[in-house]
């Protein structure tokens, strides 16, 4: 079972009739990547559903499910050493597990949200900004996709 301290937030975002909807994901959906993907398929999204998950104020995971297709982006490959969902993302990608000396680097599809307005180059620049926390990074992503204020409210992100 998922420990509360591991996951800061887990949200599903999807468009229904052109409007973005956000739902908090239940802990039971976060046990592994397969369960998460199955849970995301239940949302009625036009063009699939996106999971935005933050771990321990350190790492984020984006999972996008469109029909049978599952795409992932993990902001730091070394997170596979600590979290089951991150490990599942590495397995899905067919990547080797990180070694202890490995550097922090993203893993997966940087263009996962490219068709929605967050292109690979922008995502790479965002992930490389080590001054930002995962909620701040994903707030930027949500803003570009069109549901920034709703995301900020959902994760209690306040702007100064």
Number of strands: 6
Major sheet: arrangement of strands: 2-1-3-4-5-6
What percent strand?
15-25%
What structural class do you assign from the helix and strand content?
A: alpha+beta
What percent of the residues sit in helical stretches (DSSP H or I)?
25-40%
Form type: globular
Number of domains: 1
Rg value: 14 Å
Sketch the major β-sheet: 6 strands, antiparallel
Low-confidence stretches: 1-5
What is the ordering of alpha helices and beta strands?
A: EEHEEEHEHHH
Average pLDDT score: 90
Number of helices: 5
Distance between the termini: 35 Å
Structure in words:
By secondary structure, this protein is α+β, with helices and mostly antiparallel strands. It has one domain (7-150). Helix content is 28%, strand content 24%. The protein contains five helices and six strands, in the order E-E-H-E-E-E-H-E-H-H-H. It has helices spanning 33-40, 84-93, 120-127, 134-145, 148-154, and strands at 7-16, 19-24, 49-55, 59-66, 69-74, 107-108. It has a six-stranded antiparallel β-sheet, sandwiched between helices. A hairpin with a 2-residue loop joins strand 1 and strand 2. Helix 4 (134-145) packs antiparallel against helix 5 (148-154). It is globular and about 45 Å long. It starts with 6 loop residues before the first strand and ends in a 6-residue tail after the last helix. The model is unreliable at 1-5 (pLDDT under 50).
């Amino acid at each position: 079972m998922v420990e509360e301290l591991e996951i800061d937030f887990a949200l599903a975002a999807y468009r229904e009739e052109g409007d973005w909807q956000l739902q908090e994901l239940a802990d039971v959906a976060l046990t592994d990547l397969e369960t998460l993907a199955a849970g995301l398929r239940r949302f009625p999204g036009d063009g699939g559903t996106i999971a935005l998950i933050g771990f321990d104020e350190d790492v984020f995971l984006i999972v996008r499910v469109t029909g049978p297709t599952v795409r992932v982006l993990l902001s730091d490959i070394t997170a596979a050493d600590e979290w089951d969902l991150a490990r599942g993302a590495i397995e899905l990608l067919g990547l080797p597990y990180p070694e202890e000396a490995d550097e922090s680097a993203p893993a997966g599809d940087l263009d996962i949200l490219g068709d929605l307005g967050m292109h690979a180059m922008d995502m790479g620049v965002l992930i490389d900004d080590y001054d930002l926390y995962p909620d701040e990074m994903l707030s930027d992503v949500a803003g570009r996709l069109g549901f920034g204020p709703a995301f900020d409210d959902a994760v209690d992100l306040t702007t100064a």
